[in-house]
Amino acid sequence: MSHTIREKQKLLNRVRRIKGQIEAVERALEGERACNDVMQLITSCRGAMNGLLAAVLEDHIRTHLVDADASGHVHEGSATERLVEVVHSYFK
Predict the structure, then answer these.
(1) For the chain, what are the domain ranges?
(2) What per-residue confidence (pLDDT) applies to 64?
(3) Residue 88's Cα: distance from chain center in Å?
(4) How far apart are CA 8 and CA 64, in angstroms?
(5) Which GO terms describe its molecular function (predicted)?
(6) CB 41 within 8 A of CB 52
(7) Helix, strand, coil % in the chain, rounded to nearest 5
(8) Which CATH number describes the domain made up of 2-90?
(9) Cβ–Cβ < 8 Å for 54, 14
(10) Which of 19, 27, 25 is nearest to 49 (CA)?
(11) Is the confidence at residue 27, as pLDDT, over 60?
(12) What pLDDT digit, counting tens, does each position of 6-25 carry?
């Protein structure tokens, strides 16, 4: 996954935020917070994880599954762009 180096700090920041959200779920459970509060926290974690997965998956698509020309330019309307759009819509 060496291609993620250029996005490394961004991805690590996302992971750290997710870690904080998971810790908030743990604190909520330990503090016996209301079910609605816990479910909201869990939903936020799930959304953050989906966002992380979408970012890594998009990079994978663009790096390994591209239909780019020799310069690395991906053409608008290409299969790659359509696939990225589908991925984004799925994770919303």
Answers:
(1) 2-90
(2) 73
(3) 10
(4) 17
(5) DNA binding; metal ion binding
(6) no
(7) 75, 0, 20
(8) 1.20.58.1000
(9) no
(10) 19
(11) yes
(12) 688 999 999 999 999 999 99
The answer to whether 18 and 52 have CB atoms below 8 angstroms apart is: yes
CA gap 29, 60 in Å, rounded = 36
Exposure string for 63-79, b = 16+ CB within 10 A, e = fewer: eeebeeeeeeebeeeee
60 sits in which H/E element? helix 35-64
Sign of the CA dihedral running 42, 45, 50, 53: negative
What residue type is 59 in one-letter code? D
Structure tokens at 37: 């509060």
The per-residue pLDDT for 35 is 97
Helices (H) and strands (E) in the chain, counts: 3, 0
pLDDT tens-digit map of 29-79: 999 999 999 999 999 999 999 999 888 888 887 777 765 555 556 566 677
